[in-house]
Hints:
Elements: H1 3-14, H2 17-38, H3 44-66, H4 70-84, H5 88-94, H6 96-107, H7 114-124, H8 130-137, H9 141-157, H10 167-189, E1 193-194, H11 200-216, H12 221-234, H13 260-276, H14 282-295, H15 304-317, H16 321-335, H17 337-347, H18 358-369, H19 373-386, E2 388-389, H20 390-407
Parallel strand pairs: 1-2
Amino acid sequence: xxxxxxxxxxxxxxxxxxxxxxxxxxxxxxxxxxxxxxxxxxxxxxxxxxxxxxxxxxxxxxxxxxxxxxxxxxxxxxxxxxxxxxxxxxxxxxxxxxxxxxxxxxxxxxxxxxxxxxxxxxxxxxxxxxxxxxxxxxxxxxxxxxxxxxxxxxxxxxxxxxxxxxxxxxxxxxxxxxxxxxxxxxxxxxxxxxxxxxxxxxxxxxxxxxxxxxxxxxxxxxxxxxxxxxxxxxxxxxxxxxxxxxxxxxxxxxxxxxxxxxxxxxxxxxxxxxxxxxxxxxxxxxxxxxxxxxxxxxxxxxxxxxxxxxxxxxxxxxxxxxxxxxxxxxxxxxxxxxxxxxxxxxxxxxxxxxxxxxxxxxxxxxxxxxxxxxxxxxxxxxxxxxxxxxxxxxxxxxxxxxxxxxxx
Length: 408
C-alpha cells in the first residue's frame, strides 16, 4: 500500500525512477526483517519513509563523493536533508499527493510505448509484481520485466523531469495517463485472451488509480468522466458471469445483481464532470451511455434513442471505426436491425476492423434478428475464429449453433 508513495517521494529526491524503486524495495525488505522482532511501529508509513529517505541520502552522499566535489559536499548534503523533510508526518500529509501525481505522469509519459506505460504504471503505482502483470496480459514474465527495464532506461536517457506538466502541456499529457488507466481497465473488464472472461484485479487497480487521480486533479472534467465510466461498468461485474464463469451479455443480465453503490458513485462522478466542463468529453460521454443502462431497471426500459444520440456526439468528438461499430449496435436497437446492418456493412472494408472479432459478431447478431440465420451462423463462426478469449469463443459458437438449429 505504501510502495507508490515511497517511490514517489524518492523519485523526487533522486530524479531516477528505477533507483527510487530499488531503494523503496530495500526499505520494505528492512521492515520485513525488523518488524517481526521489534514490532510494528506506531506510524509504519513514516518508518518506511524514514528508512527509504536515509538510503536515498546515503546514495546521494556516495555519488557526490565519487564526483570529487568535496568542497561542495557539506552544502549539497544540507540541501538534500532539507528536501528529505525531517517532519515526516507533515511530509506524508503535504507532499504525497504531489509525488503520486508526478509518478503517474512519469509512468505514463508519451516517450514510452503504450505497452511500457501500462507495465510501468501497474508496477510502480499498482504494486503488482512482474509475474502478476504477465499473468494479467498473458505474456511471459521475461517480456514484462524487459518492458519495465527498458521503460526506466528510456525515462533516464530522455531526462524526463519529475514534475506535473505545466498548464499548456497538461491536457495532452493527462490524455496519456487517462488512456493507460482505461487500457488497464478494459483488459480487466473484457479480457482479450485466455480462459477468463474478466480479470477483476486489473479493473480494481484501474479504478483505484482513477479515484486517486480524481482526488489529485479535482477540477479536470475528463478525470471524473473516466472514473464515472469505470464505476458504472464495474457495477455489473457480478452479473456478467454465469455459474461456470461463462459470459452473460448485457441484455441477459440479472440487474438486481448490479451494485447500486457503484452506480451511485458513478452517477455522482458524472455529475461532477458535467459541472466542470463546457460539455462532455469522450470518457464522460461513454459514462453517460453507461448511465442510461444503469438507470433502466430492465433491458426493455433502456432509452436506446438517447444512447444513439450520445453515440452520435461521441462519433463527432472521437471518430473511430470501433465507435462506429458500437453505434451500429445502438442504431439496431433504437431503429431496428436493418438500420444497424447498413452501418456495419459500410465498415466491412475498413482495414482497422479486418481482424476484429466484434465486427462479424455484431453483424451476426443483426442478421439473426432479421431472420437471416444461415448468414448469421457464418458470422458467429468467423468471430469465434478471430477471438483469443476461450470464454468468448464458446459463447460465439453457441450462438452459431442456435442459428444453425433455427435455420435448419
